[in-house]
Design brief:
By secondary structure, the chain is of the alpha/beta class. The chain folds into 2 domains: about 10-250, Aspartate Aminotransferase, domain 2 (3-Layer(aba) Sandwich); about 255-375, Alpha-Beta Complex (Aspartate Aminotransferase, domain 1), CATH 3.90.1150.10. The protein contains 11 helices and 12 strands. It comes from Streptomyces ossamyceticus.
Length: about 375
């Protein structure tokens, strides 16, 4: 079975893990800080603005806490987003307000965001669908003009940028995901960015029990009573560790090659699927936009997508759709809302396999199977 996602790991990552074992320290430590520094260099930000955490979901929850969201507050986010985003809002007692997306890019535009903003809007949370930067520059301008905080869910966009500005650094807060299905993988892990230095320092405290300073061996000789606690506010433990940081550091050094291979696969898909009747391909990137190429999605006529996915699965090609509309999930209390573009896109879109483990023959297998399925449905084209 050709899989949608597959991590690109090798001997370098194994060697890095072995080095951590030999150090006899696998917890939060020097390799964690080194990874933060390298990732800061990758983004073009100061290292003290970043906190390596155990997963991006924890970062989204921490972001809503840093903003002090609560009862009566609203957060605008695209309905086609990961469930963690809405959960992070709802868990604070705030209300997720779902907005439309562009039918082709599956990213919200600044106009989509603006139409959902109300006097109660305290934040906007934007996903970069498939690694496409989207309308983030205009969305950031809109949020600044209206005094609204902007959280970027950059889980899919670890190497995306616009004219050299890294996606994730347009807003006030951002998170990246390094789980087993992402482009840069640690097994589990994430990074949180805060534009404001004080907010970043607070994020670091809250990510480690709320401690103003660590207590333990690292404080011995610095403080006369290094075991005592200084807890100015309640936190939790969501920091990353040196094992996952070591893997992440190697992956970061390999990231340009991993993304380059993903781009090659996208170009193969574009070439081999061009002109297939009834099939719409991802739109081209605007000038100056660079993607991480996390998803490659195609769109077909309404009523066909599920059958096509089943036939591809029978042919040994696993596909999926990310992400089902959140306004349809009852727990968020928005099931009466109508978002026609999001709903139609969710019924027409299919994500094809895309990862560096695919060779050209695999890509040809996928495209041949898809062409065959579409050929059998000639006349039932995408609109």
């Amino acid at each position: 079975m050709i899989q949608v996602f597959q991590p690109g790991l090798g001997e370098e990552e194994l060697a890095a893990v072995a080095e951590v074992f030999r150090s006899n320290w696998i917890g939060h430590g020097p390799r964690t800080r080194a990874f933060e520094e390298k990732f800061a260099e990758h983004l073009g930000v100061e290292p003290d603005r970043l906190v390596f955490i155990n997963c991006a979901t924890a970062g989204l929850f921490l972001s809503t806490e840093l903003l002090g969201l609560g009862e009566g507050d609203e957060v605008v986010l695209p309905s086609l987003s990961f469930v963690a985003a809405a959960n992070a809002v709802a868990a604070r007692g705030a209300r997720p307000v779902f907005c439309e997306v562009d039918a082709r890019t599956l990213n919200p535009t600044a106009d989509d965001i603006a139409r959902a903003v109300t006097p109660r809007t305290k934040a906007v949370m934007v996903l970069h669908y498939g690694g496409y930067p989207g309308d983030i520059a205009a969305i950031a301008d809109l949020c600044r003009e209206r005094g609204i905080a902007l959280i970027e869910d950059a889980a899919c966009a670890v190497a995306s940028h616009i004219d050299g500005t890294a996606v994730g650094t347009f807003g006030d807060l951002a998170v990246w995901s390094f789980d087993a299905m992402k482009v840069l993988v640690c097994g589990d892990g994430g990074m949180l960015y805060a534009r404001d230095a004080d907010q970043a320092a607070r994020a670091r405290r809250l990510a480690y029990h709320g401690l103003a300073r660590p207590s333990g061996f690292g404080q011995a000789g610095v403080s006369s009573r290094w075991w005592e606690l200084d807890v100015p506010e309640v936190g939790r433990r969501i920091v990353g560790n040196d094992l996952t940081a070591a893997i992440g550091t190697v992956q970061l050094s390999r990231l340009p090659g991993l993304v380059a291979r993903r781009r090659e696969i996208v170009q193969l898909y574009d070439r081999e699927l061009a002109g297939v009747p009834g099939l719409s391909l991802p739109p081209p990137l605007p000038e100056g936009h660079h993607s991480t190429y996390y998803f490659y999605w195609v769109q077909v006529a309404l009523g066909l997508r599920d059958e096509i996915a089943s036939e591809l699965y029978a042919a040994g090609v696993y596909t999926t759709f990310r992400y089902p509309p959140l306004h349809k999930v009852p727990v968020y209390g928005a099931t009466g809302q109508r978002l026609p573009r999001s709903e139609e896109a969710a019924e027409r879109t299919l994500c094809l396999p895309l990862h560096p483990g695919l060779d050209d023959a695999d890509v040809s297998t996928v495209t041949a199977a898809l062409r065959k399925v579409m050929e059998s449905r000639r006349g039932e084209g995408a609109s």
